[in-house]
UniProtKB/TrEMBL annotation:
EC number of this enzyme: 2.1.3.2
The Aspartate/ornithine carbamoyltransferase carbamoyl-P binding domain, residue ranges: 87-228
UniProtKB keywords: Allosteric enzyme, Plastid, Pyrimidine biosynthesis, Transferase, Transit peptide
Protein name: aspartate carbamoyltransferase
Family matches, as InterPro entries: Asp/Orn_carbamoyltranf_P-bd (IPR006132), Asp/Orn_carbamoylTrfase (IPR006130), Asp/Orn_carbamoylTrfase_sf (IPR036901), Asp_carbamoyltransf (IPR002082), Asp_carbamoyltransf_Asp/Orn-bd (IPR006131)
Pfam short name (any one): OTCace
Signal sequence annotation: none
Family: Belongs to the aspartate/ornithine carbamoyltransferase superfamily. ATCase family.
Function: Catalyzes the condensation of carbamoyl phosphate and aspartate to form carbamoyl aspartate and inorganic phosphate, the committed step in the de novo pyrimidine nucleotide biosynthesis pathway.
Cellular compartments annotated: Plastid, Chloroplast
Keyword Phosphoprotein found: no
PROSITE patterns: CARBAMOYLTRANSFERASE
Any one GO MF annotation of this record: aspartate carbamoyltransferase activity
Amino acid sequence: MSAASFLFSCSMHVGVSHPKVAAKSSPCGLLNQPWNHLKSKTPFGHSGVLEKSKLSQKGDEILWRAGALQVESAPSFSMGQKFHLHDVIEAQQFDRETLNAIFEAARSMESIESKSSRSQMLKGYLMATLFYEPSTRTRLSFESAMKRLGGDVLTTENAREFSSAAKGETLEDTIRTVEGYSDIIVMRHFESGAAKRAATTASIPVINAGDGPGQHPSQALLDVYTIEREIGKLDGIRVGLVGDLANGRTVRSLAYLLAKYQDVKIYFVSPNVVKMKDDIKDYLTSKGVEWEESADLMEVASKCNVVYQTRVQKERFGEKIELYEEARGKYIVNQDVLNVMQKHAVVMHPLPRLDEITVDVDSDPRAAYFRQAKNGLYIRMALLKVLLLGW
């Protein structure tokens, strides 16, 4: 029996195609996630919630009782099969094999998007976009991705002000309510760690679309996808992360993903008040990734395959406006920076930009940030497909 057939027979044995918790001692084990809720697909392809009885945890063992079935926590990998994706919460959850699989799925989505007729792949599915912070690219690209695959969207752009959160409702209660209306939740929140709380609560897939200064994993996925498409490789690259590195969730998530590749070096270029935090530096060191802090953008730009510029985020400074003014405008990508960059290097930016990249850079073929934004559509189409239908 093939590995794929074997896993299928295992899934049929437990009655679902993507069980959240699988047997540790059984050969049917699948990758266990750090969130102990159960997410499943019904055999008919529509999102369904496996009836949950009591979950009890003792040490590292998680016992799931559904009828007569009792299993322990799953192993850390799934017998050579692709990682079973149930949520997208943080960049650390991906390994290199899974990244390659997601990028392969994204390339297939490019051909789907280019066709005039809309795909019906996700017909009958509903995506809820729950955004507690402003967003243009992330929210619209997720909504476009869902619609291009035939699904429908329920949306609230400013949930912090115009949802029951304004009345004091807890995030957990909001998630329990919204999951009753939808098959998948895409959430942006102002608090770091909110996405993990949502995933722990929900019985349907949750995608972290940015949690305060924490992480933005789908952005990091599209960033790495863009680098591979623009540079042609991921091993051996040199990347300069520039700007607000203390508050930039995009650069934090990107650093985690770049650590999956070989012979990568990362340069941190930022004002003193927004330097990269030690947790990222320590993580890179633990993974054997070389990194260096520099105050000289011109020197770093001359060495790098990618100059990844970011906006200094005024909204993260609160009342400390003087610190924001100190940081803003210190490092700007302009024609002088382009003049020292390598011929085949690229400038990237998660957008929106203010004045940290001058508009005359836009006409240079090395300005990749609008192509980068378009790649977000393909990555998010791929994530929705994989989360709702599997690989």
